[in-house]
Design goal:
The complex is a heterodimer. Chain A is mainly β. Chain A contains no helices and 11 strands. The interface between A and B is medium-sized, with 25 and 24 residues.
Chain lengths: 119, 113
C-alpha cells in the first residue's frame, strides 16, 4: 500500500532554533500534501496544504513565516518550524493522498509523525 | 458548532461486546467519509472508507446517512486490541482550496478483559 515516510520521528531542540521536518511519499506521487498539528488529547488540526511547485495554503491562525513549507518535488514536502518556542511543542503529522491526482474520495496516508519538544 | 462532531468518550466495554460510534457533520456538500484509527502517540491509520450503501469489513461496519448527515461505525466482538481513538473524517471539494478533509475530535474506546 501507499507509504508516507516522515523524518525525524522525534526531535528535542532549544528555544530559538529552527527544526525541519521531511515528508516523503515513497511509492506514489503526491501533488498535494497536508501538514497537521496535534496537541495532547486533541484531534488533528490542519495547518497547511502543501502544493508541489507553488506556495502552500495556510489555515487561519497559522503563521506562514513561522511554519515554512516547501514542496519542491512530487514526493517531498518539508515543514520548517522557525525560531521554535516551547508552545510549538506538539506532534506534527504529514499526509498525502495516494489516489488519482485531485480525486477527492481517496483516503489519506499519514506519515508516522514527528514529536517536537522545545526546551 | 464544529464541522465534524464526535462523542469523545471514553467508551469502556468488555471484550466481546458490540459498540457503536456516531459522527455528525455540518457540511451538506461533503462527498467523502472515512474512519481512521489512532493509537496513543501514533499517527492515524485508515480503518475504512464509508460508502453510501454502507460497508462491512470483518467485525467493522460503517454506515452513512446523508439525510441526517451522520456516519456510524459498529464494532462487533470487541478485542483488547481495538482499544484506540477512532477519528471520523469528512471530505468535500472546495473550488479554491481543492480537496478538504476535516477531522472529528475522535472517540476513545477502551476494551477491558
Amino acid at each position: 500500500g501507499a507509504v508516507v515516510s516522515q523524518h525525524p520521528s522525534r526531535v528535542i531542540c532549544k528555544s530559538g532554533t529552527s527544526v525541519k521536518i521531511e515528508c516523503r511519499s515513497l511509492d506514489f506521487q503526491a501533488t498535494t500534501m497536508f501538514w497537521y498539528r496535534q496537541f495532547p488529547k486533541q484531534s488533528l488540526m490542519l495547518m497547511a496544504t502543501s502544493n508541489e511547485g507553488s506556495k502552500a495554503t495556510y489555515e487561519q491562525g497559522v503563521e506562514k513565516d513561522k511554519f515554512l513549507i516547501n514542496h519542491a518535488s512530487l514526493t517531498l514536502s518539508t515543514l520548517t518550524v522557525t525560531s521554535a518556542h516551547p508552545e510549538d511543542s506538539s506532534f506534527y503529522i504529514c499526509s498525502a493522498r495516494s489516489g488519482q491526482l485531485g480525486k477527492y474520495n481517496s483516503p489519506l496516508h499519514f506519515g508516522n509523525g514527528t514529536r517536537l519538544t522545545v526546551t | 458548532r464544529k464541522e465534524v462532531e464526535q462523542d469523545p468518550g471514553p467508551f469502556n466495554v468488555p471484550e466481546g461486546a458490540t459498540v457503536a460510534f456516531n459522527c455528525t457533520y455540518s457540511n451538506s456538500a461533503s462527498q467523502s467519509f472515512f474512519w481512521y484509527r489512532q493509537d496513543c502517540r501514533k499517527e492515524p491509520k485508515l480503518l475504512m472508507s464509508v460508502y453510501s450503501s454502507g460497508n462491512e469489513d470483518g467485525r467493522f461496519t460503517a454506515q452513512l446517512n446523508r439525510a441526517s448527515q451522520y456516519i456510524s461505525l459498529l464494532i462487533r466482538d470487541s478485542k483488547l486490541s481495538d482499544s484506540a481513538t477512532y477519528l471520523c473524517v469528512v471530505g468535500f471539494m472546495n473550488n479554491n482550496a481543492g480537496n478538504m478533509l476535516t477531522f472529528g475530535g475522535g472517540t476513545r474506546l477502551m476494551v477491558k478483559p
